[in-house]
Amino acid sequence: MHKKTLSDWSLDFCIYLVLLLCGLATLLPLANILSKAVSDESSVVSGKVGIFPVGFQLETMKYVVSSSQFLHSIGISLLITVVGTVLAILVTAITAYPLSKRHLPGISFIMLLFIFTMMFNGGIIPNYLLMKQLHLINSLWSLMLPALISVFNMLVIKSYYESLPEALEESAKMDGARNFTILFRIILPLSVPVIATIALFYAVYFWNDYFHPMLYINDAGLKPLQLYLRDIVLNADSSNALNKSTDDLMNTSPEGVRSATVIASIIPMLLVYPYLQKHFVKGVLIGSVKG
Amino acid sequence: MLKKYNKAMLLTVAACLSVSSLVACSSKNTTTGGSTSPASTTAAVATTTGPKPELRSLQIWQQEDYNTYPVAKFLEQKTGYKVKYDMLPQDKPQDKMNILIASGEPYDVITSVGGTDFKALYADYAKKGALVDLGPLIDKFGPNIKSAVDPEALEAAKVDGKLYAIPTKSIPTTSSSLYIRQDWLDKVGMKTPTTLDELVAVLKAFKEKDPGGNADKNIPLTVRGDAPFIDNIVGAFGMPNFWNNVNGKLTPRIQDPAYKDYVNFAQDLFKQGLIDKEFAANKDATAKEKFTSGRAGIIMLNWSDVPVIIDALVKNVPTAKANYLPALKGKDGKIGLSANQGFDRISFIPKASKHPEDAIKWMNAKLEKDTFKGMAIGEENKHFTFKDGAYTPIQPIFTDERNRANNFLMGTDDKNYPTYWQARVRKDLRLFEAWKFMNVTEANVRVLDPLGFAPYLPEFSKNFQQLNVMVGDYTTKLLFGAEPLSGLDAFIAKYKSSGGDASVKEVNDWYATAKK
Prior knowledge:
Shape of chain B: globular
Radius of gyration of chain B: 27 Å
Helix content of chain B: 40-55%
Largest sheet of chain B: 5 strands, mixed
Distance between the termini of chain A: 30 Å
Number of helices of chain B: 19
Largest sheet of chain A: none
Helix content of chain A: over 70%
Number of helices of chain A: 15
Oligomer: heterodimer
Number of strands of chain B: 17
Strand order of the largest sheet of chain B: 2-1-3-14-6
Strand content of chain A: under 5%
Order of helices and strands of chain A: HHHHHHHHHHHHHHH
Structural class of chain A: mainly alpha
Strand content of chain B: 5-15%
Largest interface: A-B, 52 and 70 residues
């Protein structure tokens, strides 16, 4: 290591400065919403709330967090995310395994079928009709079943399987293992990095999904968080008065409540993410060293 | 590697497979459809004698779940019908409604809002045969609907002479006007302006005499950027609504002869610094911020915002007082505040409904006098008190149990509802005062939207939103001088060719028949 010169120092300084500014830029809007959520409504209306709360209060947060609809929606979202991700990983990993065996007869034809669905799909109305015929409208399964396998994710896992040495399986076979044992006791434990990555993809998808619940869920009791949020956040703006009846105008939710809802809804992710990300990063690292 | 030939063959096979699976799927659809329909008809027959069926109702979005809302339980007790409520999303409800109608989801009643967009959708469904003709059903099962709902409203809800929806009339209201700092007026020693000239004098005094103590940061009048037609002021030019009666013909503002005068007037205000310099960039919230922080003297405001605004204002400026300006008179005595009228909601029965008769019976039962009152505002001495002809809510139970009751209405008792409804405004005295000033004190200057009860007008519905935005943007540009007024003729020509002409013709063809 050579001694740092002045230009090194100034370069470091610039890098830190830029990174700091970028970090702040992403934090500022969040800080603003957080402050609005815990400031009193008068201060919010008169535009005094910037990065720091003015007239600190927790009533709004309490009101939002204790609202039964909100708790319900969080619960639904968690359920979909957890069950959906576990099932999706299972299905995707199982599908990818035989497809990684090039010697399987007709493999390229089956691959083609998968790839075909990547490029073409029926569109909204046929999908809706399909769900309806399957009696899945207003059922949480309509949000999970169609998303259980993403061909792209499956291809990622498949290529990872292919990178594993074939000799491994042969030796397992010689020891008397059959296909399921090989997959679950040998292949999957070796695939933790890629599985973790894909699990994160699926989890984020299930947590963020807004469009499908909007289509398939009519029952207010089954609304996931994103749908609930969208409704709350949109429910404002008296500038939209032309399309609203007088009663609706009197019932718009205040800015503070909307901010508090947004904040309350990101708390679960904020709690989970750092933990998840730690594993995620570690998983990728193992993968690259082995690669 | 696959040969090209093989690839092509595989593709065809894949295509065939997907097609055949589609066919298989659709044939399965028809068989399941066939097997369920006899079952449902027998169920329908059984209901005429047996217990009342559970109805399915699709409603517009509200914050609480309909099914657990107290009004739902009240209605179940009174009408004997158990109803499962679903709701449309807040975001693009039209799209969702289209999907549900197209896929034949068996709702027994669908209630949407009654604005132009939804009136157009409703008429479209009716014309395509997706809705049940309610006429014969109402004759048979709907005596209350006939007696309670305003016949004029029922007439206006007809499509091609047939009634497919129960309309819920809105309470005609003026919602927006100019809201002024009374304490500023007192400080500059002036009286409440009643004419445009007096208004200009007041604005000048606000700018020059610094009643707010903001030095040169005083904003005499602030408005939103998307509202270049300033309510109350446009009334003084005889154009309170988007469409106004000019010599017996309905005319959109841009083609109104008074348009130039209005633009000249407002432009002049802007040049003198009497209108917020940044008004074009103002959102609803920014204009409110300027007013509540004590920098603006007058704001264009909805009365529904008054309690929040006054709270914030007084917190920042404890001595502040504010109230609405009366309607201002123009040079030739013109005066007017825009008031909306028309349908608040429309409720219709899709063809896919399994119990259309029961749906009408249910709606009829909801319009039974006492049931309607109980649904709308609750029980006397529990939810409200009645004194000297006025209904006053008892809080907090009124807000807890009847605040969303308006979403349960399907047609109203049109003679009594406007009086019942005032209980809603009386939940806050400041709200009531603001509403009363514009709608009772100033009732004689209200100009009802002439298109409120217009039937579905295809050209008008197709274009009105886009045209309104076009005119709004153009007028904003004129006001702050980004466009010269000399280009007006060219703009009008563009307006006419973008659907303006077709709309004017269609609207006036209807207007001519409606006036008779």
